[in-house]
Amino acid sequence: MRVIKGNQVIEDNWQRIDKAAEDAPLPPGDIIVPYAYWKTHREQLLQRTDGLFGICIYGDDAIEDIKADLQHFRIIALDFPVFRDGRNYSHARLLRERYGYKGELRAVGDVLRDQLFFLHRCGIDAFQIREDKNIEDAIRSFADFSVVYQTAADDAVPVYKNRRLST
User: Fold this and answer.
1) Which domain holds residue 61?
2) DSSP 3-state helix, strand, coil percentages of the chain (rounded to 5)?
3) Strand 126-127 versus strand 104-109 pairing type
4) Nearest alpha carbon to residue 30 among 78, 73, 59
5) pLDDT tens for the 167 residues of the chain, in order
6) What DSSP designation does 94 have?
7) Most CB atoms within 10 A, among 2, 30, 39, 78?
8) Of 108, 85, 116, 86, whose CA–CA distance to 7 is shortest?
9) Which residues partner with 105 through β-bridges?
10) Does the residue 32 lie in any domain?
């Protein structure tokens, strides 16, 4: 699978385990499991030796329940099931700003070019673009806006802080 990370397209080896496959044995290698799976198989995942693991958060998951376990997750995937569902924008900001998560935050699901700049401003640093969209075109979206008007998780300086006072 190809993802955008560090403003470039990379080949990625993470395997996402979806909700339907939760009862099957976990494959070897690096995996991303649903939040519900983490809650019921926490100890098993912590003892895993055949690959790294991360979790997938859905908009209705209670992320405050994982704040004590953040150091265990190499990656947190934030699922955007449809374009209009923005709950994981808030989850990303909370994970970065309130809980201090330093690992990879990846947007997955119905992720489109128009969202990337704003997802990045919320602290998301990796993006899995829908298969039917052009990933190279999506990278260009990071240059769509040259100024920002408010603070966010990306530490960009808002235009009002650069404005000089008239004398």
Assistant:
1) 2-162
2) 35, 20, 45
3) parallel
4) 73
5) 899 998 899 999 999 998 656 677 888 999 999 999 999 999 999 999 999 999 999 999 999 999 999 999 999 999 998 888 889 999 999 999 999 999 999 999 999 888 888 888 889 999 999 889 888 888 877 666 655 556 555 655 555 566 654 55
6) I
7) 78
8) 116
9) 76
10) yes
Give the chain's end-to-end CA distance (angstroms, integer): 55
Whole-number Å distance between alpha carbons of 83 and 106: 15
Residue type, 49: T
What pLDDT sits at residue 127?
94
Residue 167, in any domain of the structure: no
Phi/psi class of residue 100: alpha, beta or left (left: φ > 0; alpha: ψ in -120 to 50)? left
pLDDT for position 137: 85
Helix (H, G, I), strand (E, B) or coil at 17: coil
- Residue 63 CB partners (closer than 8 Å, separation 6+): 57, 91, 94, 95, 99
| Residue 72, domain CATH | 3.20.20
Number of domains in the chain: 1
